[in-house]
Amino acid sequence: xLELTAIAFSPWSEKARWALDHHRCDYRELAYEPIVGEYxxxxxxxxxxxxxxxxxxxxxxxxxxxxxxxxxxxESIGRGSPLFPEHRLEEIGAWNRRSEAALAAGxxxxxxxxxxxxxxxxxxxxxxxxxxxKPLFLPIGRQRLRAFMARYSIREGDLSPEAMLTAELDALxxxxxxxxxxxxxxxxxxxxxxxxxxxxxxxxxPRYIVRMAGLGPAGMNVPELESRYAGLIAWxxxxxxxxxxxxxxxx
Length: 251
What we know:
The protein contains 10 helices and 4 strands, in the order βαβαββαααααααα. The protein is an alpha+beta fold and about 250 residues long. A 4-stranded mixed beta sheet has the order 2-1-3-4, with helices on one face. A hairpin with a 2-residue loop joins strand 3 and strand 4. Helix 4 runs parallel beside helix 8.
């Protein structure tokens, strides 16, 4: 059976998960635990050096990293309608790059707003620690949080994270222009990738993606962008309703 190592609330993990479910792949999901989980993965993958992020998919002796590569693999072994029509691969790849840029910018905005808060440090602790005891482990939570923020911070160039995120969302809005799907072929991975960029503006219903423990809805979004992109949020929600069931199966 396939094994997907993922973070339950991560939009990157959801991109891979959605593709696997769409293609009815039989897999089990393993929860990734920051720091310790990386050491375990590196040992299993025999990859002691280099950048390593989740999601990661194991298919026998083969390891696939990056949501896009996992989704392509799911299509090659699964069934169901294609998410990657051959004549649209270049366009889908371009939308995926836009998705990655928007997600990185959104994460930077949220990490900056969260800062080194007590709530986030507690949320960063392993789930196996009972909730009443988590305040006693705050130093560990803060250490894990600092490591996470250092790894996933982005360098601000000519554009701030806010400008980067809104630029990609504006491009999505313009491309859709009231349409149901980005491409004429119907539902594709381009829609999956760009739908997940809205997760950091307003989270989708938690029936589909769980929210980070210890943080309510207000801790997972960028409120000033919610009204600006209300149309895109509605598009995302409709996409989930049409193509994603709460149990993960294909709708």
